[in-house]
Amino acid sequence: MRILALLFIFFILASLGSALYYLIKDKGQSERTVKMLTVRVALSLILFIALMAGTYFGIIPQNGLR
Amino acid sequence: MSLAQTDKYYLPQPSIWPFVGSVALLLMAVGGVMTMREIDNGGWVLLAGVAVLFYMMFGWFGEVIRDSEAGRYNKQVDASFRWSMGWFIFSEVMFFAAFFGALFYTRVLSVPWLADAETGSLLWEGFQATWPTAGPGLTKDGFDFTPMGAWGIPAINTLLLLSSGVTVTWAHWGLKKSNRTQLILGLAMTVALGVVFLALQAYEYEHAYSEMGLTLGAGVYGATFFMLTGFHGFHVLVGTTMLIVMLLRSIAGHFTAEHHFAFEAVSWYWHFVDVVWVLLFILVYWLI
Fold first, then answer.
1. Fold of B14-72
2. Distance (Å, whole) CA B76 – CA B5
3. A–B: how many Cβ contacts below 8 A?
4. Thinking of the domain B77-286, which architecture would CATH place it in?
5. ipTM of the complex
6. Contact status of A20 with chain B (Cβ, < 8 Å)
7. Closest by Cβ to A24, choosing from B83, B279, B287
8. Pairwise CB contact (< 8 Å): A28 & B258
9. Chain B residue closest to A56 (CA)?
10. Using CA atoms, how far apart are residues B266 and B51, in angstroms rounded to an integer?
11. Domain segments of chain A: what residues?
């Protein structure tokens, strides 16, 4: 579970970083920035919902992943 | 500078705004010190500083926006804006890395060191390496605080900020697809969510100070908690202010699907602040 959460965080940071790269490189002429930001927000939502659901159903202990 | 170069680079007129900004900072610093030293009228001086700061923002933003709308920013200027954004974000990442690093150092290294057998017997006998802790020597002296849990306001705030990430992305798509109603609606919802987040954060701080004994002075836990969440909250305030400017500009008909650096930069900044919060929620509130 912990690895999975860390993987999500890695991909969230990677998509955010790519969005910044496209923001500088494409100069507003492409959709790559907004696409990467969409990926970023989708991954964050999935992670948050998974953490909430995991705790609710007792898969993750109340005081978090250690 | 040769003529060819002045053609290429846009040189702004000499500006009064950096001077006005310095006056604002001076007033705020003096007012802040006066308030902390409980000198009369300190609050008013501080408030005057904030007022001058708002005046500067209004004036300076207006000047930049008028220049942009007049088409004075060529490709060269656009590239310099984008690179400035990149370096600004680099400094922001380093800033937060320092505070997350302090938390990591405390929790993973210094607290266990202070509690290990040899150090413990020489310096802090009986100190246990547990987290949250105020730190050795402090817990016995009345630093009795309740740590902030993740459920309740922090979880609601996470949901609010993530929702605002969705609405700002929706607005972004609206701009790219030349749908102005979607752009304006998305931005308005994002601003509203940002304001509610800040209000809940203020309520949480008030509760921490008045009910939980959790203050900036509550040892290392209180210090790291308020440094991290406080600076994040300040970033949300800055982001909300910038989003309000973007909303007003969108209503005024600014930005096109191809020409919208200001919007894109603010949108990215908001996503960045959102990601920092997700990390805060997991590392500060949740893994206690």
1. Helix Hairpins (1.10.287)
2. 11
3. 84
4. Up-down Bundle (1.20)
5. 0.92
6. yes
7. B83
8. yes
9. B151
10. 23
11. 2-56
